[in-house]
Amino acid sequence: MATEKEQVQEFLSIVGKSLHQYVESIDFDALSAAKKLILDAEAKGGRLHVTGIGKPGHVSGYAASLFSSTG
């Protein structure tokens, strides 16, 4: 049976691999284009509307709150 330390190390290894796979899957060109659209809209006095239904709705609400509080 694995010790508690070994279990934590295995868990962190799995999380690390998952995070690495996630980062590798990000389309940074699309992310950069989205950033440019948001900044261009802001510069023109526009607004950013974030929407969703269900879990995406909760995420969009969190994102909207985050954008609102950070400017």
> Kindly state the mean pLDDT as a whole number?
89
Question: Helix and strand string, N-terminal first?
Answer: HHH
Low-confidence stretches: none
What percentage of the residues does DSSP assign to strands (E)? Answer: under 5%
The tally of beta strands, per DSSP, is 0
The largest β sheet comes out as: none
- Given helix and strand content, the structural type is mainly alpha
Q: Return the domain count.
A: 1
Q: What separation lies between the terminal Cα atoms?
A: 50 Å
Number of helices: 3
What share of residues is helical? over 70%
Query: For the CA atoms, what is the radius of gyration?
Result: 18 Å
Form type: elongated
Structural summary, described in words:
With 71 residues, this protein is mostly helical. The protein has one domain. The chain has helices at residues 4-25, 28-43, 55-70. The radius of gyration is 18 Å and the shape is elongated. The mean pLDDT is 89. Keywords: Isomerase. InterPro entries: SIS_dom_sf. This is Carbohydrate isomerase. GO terms for molecular function: carbohydrate derivative binding; isomerase activity.
How is the secondary structure organized here?
Blueprint lengths: L3 H22 L2 H16 L11 H16 L1
Keywords: Isomerase
InterPro entries: SIS_dom_sf (IPR046348)
Protein name: Carbohydrate isomerase
